[in-house]
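Follow-up to my earlier ticket, as requested here are the two runs.
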Amino acid sequence: MGKNSSIEWTHHTFNPWWGCVKVSAGCKHCYAETWSRRVGLDIWGARNERRFFSDAHWREPVRWNAEAAASKTRRRVFCASMADVFEARSDLDWVRERLWTLIESTPALDWLLLTKRPEQIAEKAPWGNRWPPNVWLGTTAENQLWANRRIPILLEHPAAVRFVSCEPLVGHLDLSRWMSREKAAHGINWVIAGGESGSKARPMNPEWVRSLRDQCTRANVAFHFKQWGQWCPDRSDVSVSAKRLRVFDSFGKASTIMRLGKHSAGRELDGRPWDQFPIPEEGALTIKVFAAD
């Protein structure tokens, strides 16, 4: 975490604090909670204290901003990989205020604020109907239930980019009502999809991912496939001893997936990576396709 993040869709990560509370199905096997416990921290749950950081930590994005400005190359900062900046705790308001100031003072960085609590945005964010141009605002939609609840609230806020993270993807999703060529200025601008990793990862049906890709393609919405995770489509070059499952889409079509592990499963979808990003340009949005840099 920090500069040169390993997360495929961002350059850097920044955490104003560590710690959170599980709120929905996507949180079941939370990697951030697992990691924090691995390093000996008990910071998960409504009553537990959060972990905060020094001034040196807060100066890091200032340096990233100077580097981006000097190279005339914008950099994306994911905030926050180990927390939710819109967690409904008043004792976090002071550090949130520090974050808003930092975002406004680093205009060469695009800040990706991803939340499972979009209902808190209006109260916690200070920008009302005039968001800074370097804020990309996103919510997680791991299945249709949470897409229906969260995305309409997300779209109430006029951030430069509105995005949806469908990771871990644990069910079929139809996002088409919130994205179309006619809704380009008011709907979803970017979709990230990925399967769950870890020893307890839930299987992801490959048709769920293909459906999201096809919805994005039809609507000219940027699509980024992050990873297969622990499970991926069956491959003939893998030992027959690998664990395999039969999965079915909503029309009863069967396919076989195998447990291969995140690294070996990779992130190619139908023979190629999908690394699309929305690029705000003079009040409009275009899609740029390039390898994660």
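Run two:
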Amino acid sequence: MAMSDLQARHETLAAALWPRAGRLGEMNGLLRGALLAFAGTLLLWACAKISIPIGPVPIAMTTFAVLAIGMAYGWRLASATLLLYLAEGAMGLPVFAGTPEKGIGLAYMAGPTGGYLLGYLLAAAAVGWLAERGWDRNVLLAALAMLAGNALIYLPGLLWLGTLLGWDQPILAWGLTPFLLGDVLKLALVAAGLPLVWKAISKRT
């Protein structure tokens, strides 16, 4: 891929479905962004409570929502959405998987899953940036973007898990390998679905 392709900006899916322009100008754009960010946190909240019993451990749908929001929103709006989601959790709202049963607020965020929460923000920003370069319109590029996003979730997640519990523990067996099957399925779902949505939009227009 040429450097010019990486520098070029493409319209995001959210912008295509709900254009920024409007009679209210800048105020319309701020309201639109706020509503999309809030809707994104609701999706994240809902997906955090969904687990599908497939494979060695149930498949949690939070990462699906993180990557889908990143690809659909672009990096700025996706980052704002994840920051709002993390703020909701820090305030004690039970928006994360396992809350309130496993704790809430900052105490939960400082626990074993805290690194993955940071990874959510990194992943959403990264795949959003790639989506703005058109990677969400091609199945192969979308899959590569999803792989990069998953890596950015696991990197801080595993580093924090090992720091917290000790590197003499089976960190990969606890925090990586049981989730790989589910991640592949979620990756395939997002990578295949987004180009189909773009095709539908192009046919409509």
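The only thing I checked on run two: The chain has ten helices and two strands. Let me know what else you need.
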